[in-house]
Automatic annotation (TrEMBL), chains A, B:
This is Pantoate--beta-alanine ligase. It holds the Pfam family Pantoate_ligase. It comes from the Eukaryota. Homodimer. One of its GO terms (cellular component) is cytosol. GO terms for molecular function: ATP binding; pantoate-beta-alanine ligase activity. It comes from Cucumis melo var. makuwa. Keywords: ATP-binding, Cytoplasm, Ligase, Nucleotide-binding, Pantothenate biosynthesis. It is found in: Cytoplasm. Pathway: Cofactor biosynthesis; (R)-pantothenate biosynthesis; (R)-pantothenate from (R)-pantoate and beta-alanine: step 1/1. It catalyses: (R)-pantoate + beta-alanine + ATP = (R)-pantothenate + AMP + diphosphate + H(+). Belongs to the pantothenate synthetase family.
């Protein structure tokens, strides 16, 4: 099971993953997990490199989780490039010990579960019989923003992350703060369910033009990408305004909305919320975060900026 | 931390519980967990004794979980006798290594969580701010029977068991099949969330008169207790009838209902369901279980019988 320099062990079977983790733990190794859906970009790679600073061993999971996509969403077109991902991982300084790449985490060897297996254009919403039926709900944090636009999203995210935690048994797990609401939900889940795992969040990695890195960016046309720069621009504008003393959230939100709409983006939401509870605020009195989702063509992008006043 | 013969280590702090489990695991011990709400009777004690056959070490948790009680339910009158429990545990052949007896598993050191802390006559239903908000839902199995009568019950049970699993990190956990729906829900949760824990179910232990042992039995008057014997009698009758060829569930249910009502019990539900999915069946074609809940005075009792045809 030893990892040679620049060579990553690929595990596809969950029992084999458990066995590896158990044997490494018995040798007193600590394990860091970086959960991903593949199509790795520099945002992922910086998380993965960071992971090495927090544990002896690094596991990266690559799994496009079907249960977080509603039937209307882009599961079937979600970008995928496993060979490319492995090449990138092999080039990470310090390397990666294991890539956990399961075929289907919802297949329990019972007939009726196969509906959910095929990664087809279905969510796991309306299953019956003995197929998967257990969901982790983080009831308040899952409600607004992305939770409003994507009704099964956070249910699916929290559940698959709980599954990965139980299979990989990490000491620490690393998440990007680009998915801010997700990061807060995972932290809350870990606290509330008493997982013995340290959840670390890291700053969003951006391209030179300011666009937050996302696996979905590859689906933007050059023109759409140009328009999408309005997201980060609008967030920076609002932050500057707040720092100059504009604390009224309605006016700050208008800055954001105008900038994105003028660029031709279709706003899904823009909210200014308290950083931990994600409760909407009307006047900035303590640290907040501005969270945005917007459509450019057929691509939905999210981004955010913290304002620590 | 060593346990002397007939002396049980009592741990009230969850971090201390984790530390103990981790250190025992590093010595390659396996751990069995028997989750209880205290007021131990011979049903519990036989589970605890059985646990010794499945692991090196035995942990018994004693925690009356407030989140599984609705505000209208009997949290405040639920029987409690910690000193008596410890005496009983010290007398178990082979003994118990740890009693995990936390004060409050929903206190995360944040102000707003204290509402839920005091074991007062409230459920954790309507909390806000940064208090507990994560719930494990086993969406199909939690719906019928006790789930219909007790709306937050299985949500609370699944969640607290997930918490105990994450704190104690057992290899095996033992449950009584008297709480049949609960047992099925825990098994399903463990499968769906990929807990690496073997869930074992054991037969209901009965008093000499046939009444299923329950911590709530102490609250029955002698007269109510006499009436309550109709539960087990009715189940045995229905099972005999099925074994003699009566496979129509409506007629079998009538046998049960009549017996209990004639004795003066108030039926909450009587259902004949498939053993794993707990789906209601109309005609017995494969193994089923009859599940009953009924009130005798102010005490609600449950019981069941498997019919393996």
């Amino acid at each position: 099971m030893a990892r040679k320099e620049n060579q990553t062990l690929i595990i596809t079977d969950k029992n084999q993953m458990r066995t590896w983790a158990k044997s490494m733990r018995s040798l007193l190794n600590t394990i860091a997990l970086v959960p991903t859906m593949g199509s790795l970009h520099d945002g992922h790679l910086s998380l993965i490199q960071e992971a090495r600073n927090h544990s002896h061993l690094v596991v990266v999971s690559i799994y496009v989780n079907p249960s977080q996509f509603a039937p209307s969403e882009d599961l079937s077109t979600y970008p995928s490039d496993f060979d490319g991902d492995i090449r990138k991982l092999n080039a990470v300084p310090g390397g990666v010990d294991v890539v956990f790449h399961p075929h289907n985490l919802y297949d329990y060897g019972v007939e009726s579960a196969t509906d959910c297996a095929g990664m087809a254009d279905v969510s796991c919403l309306e299953e019956s019989g003995s197929s998967h039926e257990t969901w982790v709900r983080v009831e308040r944090l899952e409600k607004g923003m992305c939770g409003r636009s994507r009704p099964v999203f956070f249910r699916g995210v929290a559940t698959v992350v709980a599954k990965l935690f139980n299979i990989v048994d990490p000491d620490v797990a690393l998440f990007g703060k680009k998915d801010y609401q997700q990061w807060r939900i995972i932290r809350r889940m870990v606290r509330d369910l008493d997982f013995s795992i340290n959840i670390l969040g890291f700053e969003t990695v951006r391209d030179a033009d300011g666009l937050a890195m996302s696996s979905r960016n590859v689906r933007l046309s050059p023109e759409e990408r140009q328009k999408a720069l309005s997201i980060n621009r609008s967030l920076s504008k609002a932050k500057s305004a707040a720092e100059r003393g504009e604390l009224n959230c309605k006016r700050l939100k208008n800055l954001v909305v105008d900038e994105i709409q003028e660029a031709g983006g279709e706003l899904d939401y823009a909210e200014i919320v308290e950083q931990e509870s994600l409760e909407v605020v009307e006047e900035i009195k303590s640290p907040v975060v501005i969270l945005i989702a917007a459509w450019f063509g057929k691509v939905r992008l999210i981004d955010n900026i913290e304002i620590n006043i």
